[in-house]
Amino acid sequence: MRRYLWFSLLLLPFLLSPFPFYLTLLNFFAIAALVALSLYVLTGLGGMTSFAQAAFMGVSAYATALLTARASLSPWAGLALGLGLTVAFALVLGLLTVRLKGHFLPLSTIAWQVALYILAGNLVGLTGGHTGLTDLPPLSLFGLPLDTPFRYAFLGLFLLALGVLALKNLRESRLGRALLALRGDALTAASFGVDPAALRLKAFLLAGGIAGLAGFLYAHFLRFVNPTPFSLEASIKYLVMAVAGGVGTIPGVLLGAALFTGLEDWLKDLLPLLLGRQGNYETIAYGLVLAGILLFAPQGLWPLLAGRRPSGRKALPQGEPLPPRPPSGRRGEVVLEARGLRKAFGGLIAVNGVSLALRRGEILALIGPNGAGKSTTFNLLTGALPPDGGEVFLFGKEITGLPPHRIHPLGLGRTFQHPHVFPEMTVLENAALATYARTRAGFVRVLLGLHRKEEERALATAYEALRRVGLEGLALERADRLTAGQQRLLELARLLASGAEVLLLDEPGAGLRAGEKRELARLLLGLAREGYSVLIVDHDMDLIMGLADRVVVMNYGEKIAEGTPEEVQKNPLVRAAYLGEEAA
Amino acid sequence: MDATILGLLLLDGVQNGVVYGLLALAMVLVFAVTRVILVPIGELMMFAPLSFVWLQGGKLPGTLWLALALGALWALLERGRGRGLPLAGGAGLLLLFLLARGNPALAYLAALLLVVYLGVATYRVFFQPMREATVLALLIMAVGLHVAYQGLGLVFFGPEQYRPDPLLQGEATVGLTWQGVLVLAFALLSAAALYLFFRRSLFGKALLAAAENRLGARLCGIRPEEAGMVAFAIAGLMAALSGLLLAPLINAAYFMGFMLGLKAFVAAILGGLVSYPVAFLGAVLVGLFESFTSFYASAYKEALVFLLLVPALFYQSLRAKGVEE
């Protein structure tokens, strides 16, 4: 099993055993690499970041120092308290910021980091101030005290290898896909059932917990804590490591941690010599390295070395797909209904009193000139925008004002006017994102690797869907290698994999060649025959008129006509709207 | 607490608060135009008085070489006539510094222009090449520059604190120096000037347009790069002036700018990084809060200021709705 090769890290202490100095560095590497892994979760997967990872380490380090050195309790009690406190602090910060735009969280972490650092230096009675707390007991495992760098390195590296395995599991899971999707485009993720705020919060807690573990290791390695290693500069150092190595990949953040652990020591000796004065000059190098990486290799060093391969799995799924969900129920029954929808943007009334009903097994087209309010209607139906007035019902259940991630699991799926695919994932993973709402594995199961069976079935479902639209040959390609037409098909495959039976397609024909359009029409007609219900917005009259059972026409935010394609084409109001003819 | 102490605390709070307010306005402006959260504004602010002190003592500060080096990179990045501005600016700056040694009036001007030039060069060299990047990447860049500039500040000026002579000597009333009056007057004037600039001048409106919609502004003939440079120039000017005016009251040292900038940023968050008046008023509030906490719990005042973030974020969180596309 290739994944367990990471445990060969445990051979390093033997190799370095003749060099005590390098054994110490090896311990620092393991600790820094854990923190860098926490940034992989946050930044690499979740598209957030934190300038307070060192503060999280500090909380945990001080917790275990107080319990063991002051209260003489077991270090494992210190670990429990440390992790509990870091996660609790992360929860407070996270709850305050997850609903805000992306930059509020990292900004708040700066303030939080600075405040904690000041407290650690000033609460002298509790923390010992800048002198810190001394005489922490060594950790011991199975009666063996881990009191030398050689012995301690095994613990650090073992935890690091476990961390790597757990995060690889996370990357290859529904949660990893959902995080990557959230980073790229929260609305698409939400329209497949991902609750953006909740998932981001959980990722932030996980990252805080990993940093807390690193802090615990740090405290019992040095057996002494003071505020300095938990400063803002330290937090930035960890971020520089992760970004320089390549924060989007696990080998990247480990490479960064290894490089900088070595570099830091060298810089600390060299720079004061060069400048002829003592001081923390290595921060200059960190800042400039960070700037250089961001400008010249924004993906970091590892992708430069390893090339731009997709980071997901390399084999086609073999398992059984998830239980199929063929549309059931009486044909012609109303599945999606809007009554008197209204939406205004400031003074502009974009949608005014629109009612429509989609029946099972039909293709209903929503057409109208540019600016008629079609896309807004679409967003009101799918929950992307809350309506100002009116109601929406899905399978007879009111869904007015629900967010997209609560509407999708009820059986509604949508595509976007501009295809929203995620370039860093494979085509297969892009399609598998849609099974998010049909699968259950949570963070604990995923990190422990207990989700593999479900994951295999999710991927098999995605592969089935790709086969249905004819993309199975490209399943393991990066999604950004698809043509515009193939990206449209991928979006359709996603809908099929999601198990939704009410499909809302926003301009599925845009950017397609004539042949691809015929293929699309054939596919949609086939779906309708099976009982899927399709609401389609498009400009291409030939496509619509050949495809739709019924047509709803909008102009200036209002519904002006409804009927079969033939009826609508004859309608004088419609002709006036499209051709500018005077309505007779 | 008696009335005198209350008065002193109020004065102190307002005096610091308006400076945070100016920095917060500069941050909101830069963020609106370029999406950069200007974390290194505190370093820019400290570079001005420290360079001034160096010049007064007849020495050339290291910041000059930093500015000239970045100016040279800026010139390399430009093509053709675009090189005129960095080259002429750099040459002018060098000349001014050579003349300003030991001449306080010229030194004041030189320190001011240095920071403006450095601000614009920073934008051109570090931020403009990544203008398509996410806010997050820009923020990471800004934080990287903050640590680099702070480290360079230590190299250039050493760890000591300096207190330049105030422009105005003496006290207006008990607890309020004339220099303090000057700070207040300057802050209110520049807030008013910014208001007029954005509301009344075509160029100010163009800047706001570029902030609102970059593509739309470009279609109207406004170059977003130019808008970014102007935003950084204004921010540099405001930072330098507040630094020069404030330094005689609070001392200047390489590390002091960061805390000032962070407090400004707490205020900017109160305004959601979009509202200028709320950011300014928030900054005055931060100043007052800080002044009173320093009376009751001085060891923790810096930490307590960040507690203000909690209600600020909570308020913003309540206002946030929907899923961003």
TrEMBL record, chain A:
InterPro entries: AAA+_ATPase (IPR003593), ABC_AA/LPS_Transport (IPR051120), ABC_transp_permease (IPR001851), ABC_transporter-like_ATP-bd (IPR003439), BCA_ABC_TP_C (IPR032823), LivM-like (IPR043428), P-loop_NTPase (IPR027417). Residues 336-581 form the ABC transporter domain. The chain crosses the membrane at residues 20-42, 54-73, 79-98, 110-129, 149-167, 204-226, 238-263, 283-305. Residues 312-331 are annotated as: Disordered. This is ATP-binding cassette domain-containing protein. It is a multi-pass membrane protein. It comes from the Bacteria. Signal peptide: none annotated. It holds the Pfam family BPD_transp_2. Keywords: ATP-binding, Cell membrane, Membrane, Nucleotide-binding, Transmembrane, Transmembrane helix, Transport. The keyword Transmembrane helix applies. The lineage of its organism: Bacteria, Thermotogati, Deinococcota, Deinococci, Thermales. SUPFAM superfamilies: P-loop containing nucleoside triphosphate hydrolases (SSF52540). It is found in: Cell membrane. Gene3D superfamilies: P-loop containing nucleotide triphosphate hydrolases. GO terms for molecular function: ATP binding.
UniProtKB/TrEMBL annotation, chain B:
The keyword GTP-binding does not apply. The chain crosses the membrane at residues 18-38, 58-77, 84-100, 106-126, 133-157, 177-198, 227-246, 303-320. Keywords: Amino-acid transport, Cell membrane, Membrane, Transmembrane, Transmembrane helix, Transport. Pfam families: BPD_transp_2. It is found in: Cell membrane. The keyword Cell membrane applies. It comes from the Bacteria. It is a multi-pass membrane protein. Belongs to the binding-protein-dependent transport system permease family. LivHM subfamily. This is Branched-chain amino acid ABC transporter permease.
